[in-house]
Amino acid sequence: LVLLVPELTFLTGLSDLRKNSRILKDIMWEMVQSPQQHYQRLTSLLRRIRDTPDASRELERWGLRLDTDIYRTQGHILPVERINLRHRSFLPADDVGWHREVAREAPIAAVSFNSWLLVYPKRLQQLAKDLLGAMRSSSGAMGIQVGQPTVQELRDDRIESYVRSIQSSLGSQDKVQMLLCIIPSGRDDIYGAIKKLCCVQTPVPSQVINAQSLMGHPGKIRSVVQKVLLQINCKLGGQLWGVDIPL
Question: What Pfam families does the entry give (predicted)?
Fold first, then answer.
C-alpha cells in the first residue's frame, strides 16, 4: 500500500487544457516542429551551454565537452509513392498529405448509404440541418450517394434519451447501414454509451460528431464533413485510395 500526501502531489496530462484552444495550439506548435526548427533549437541550446560559465564548469567536472554543432550525415531519401484513386493517380505534395485530392474525387470504391439514422438533441436542430446540407453538397464530388436519413430529434441530451432512441430505431427498421449522432461538446459519457451500444449490444457502424467541430465558418464545416464522409465510407466497406503493390 502506497500512501501519497495530497499536498505533495499533482496531476499530470492535459485534461484541463483541452477546453482552452489557445493554450492547446501553443503546445502543439512547440511539439510539431520542422527539421530546420529542431536544428536551430538544438544549436541554440548548445551555444547557451557554451556561453554559460556554470554549465560549462559542470560539464568539465564530468569530463564532457559538447560541440557547438550537431553531427551531420547524408540521409537516404525514399522515392515518393504514387496514390491511386478511381479515375486518376497522383504524387503527394511536399507535406505528404492528400486529403484535398480524396475529398474532391471519387475513391476506388464508394458505398452509398440510403438507410441510415441521424440522432441529435432538439437544441442542435440547426446544426443537424447544416450538417445534412454539407454532406449532400460534398458527397457528389466524392462519388458517394447520401440518401434521406431517418431523423430522431431528442427532447434533451441525456444519455438515456440517446440510448432509448437508438435502440427503438434499430429495433423497428429492417436494416440500418449507419448511425450518425451529434452530441454536445465535452460529453465523453454520451460518446462512450453510444459506442458501447453500437459495438457490443446492437452492432451497427456508427459515427459520432462533436457539436463544437461543426461550429464556425462554412469552410470549416465543409472540411469536417468531408472527413466524416471518408470515415463513413471506410466503415461501410469502401476503399478510399491505394498504392502500387509491391512498392
Answer: Piwi
DSSP letters for 46-58: HHHHHH-HHHHHH
In the structure grid, which three cell numbers stand for residue 196, read together? 458501447
Domains along the sequence of the chain with CATH: 17-62 (no CATH), 99-243 (3.40.50.2300)
What is the value of pTM for the model shown? Answer: 0.70
How far is residue 101's CA from residue 84's CA, in Å, rounded to a whole number? 10
3-class SS string, 200-224 = HHCCCCEEEEEHHHHCCCHHHHHHH
Q: Using alpha carbons, select from 244, 220, 224 the residue that is nearest to residue 232.
A: 224
Q: What is the pLDDT of residues 224-239, one digit of tens each?
A: 999 999 999 999 999 9
Q: Which H helix or E strand runs over 27? A: helix 21-31
- Strand pairing of 242-243 and 83-84? antiparallel
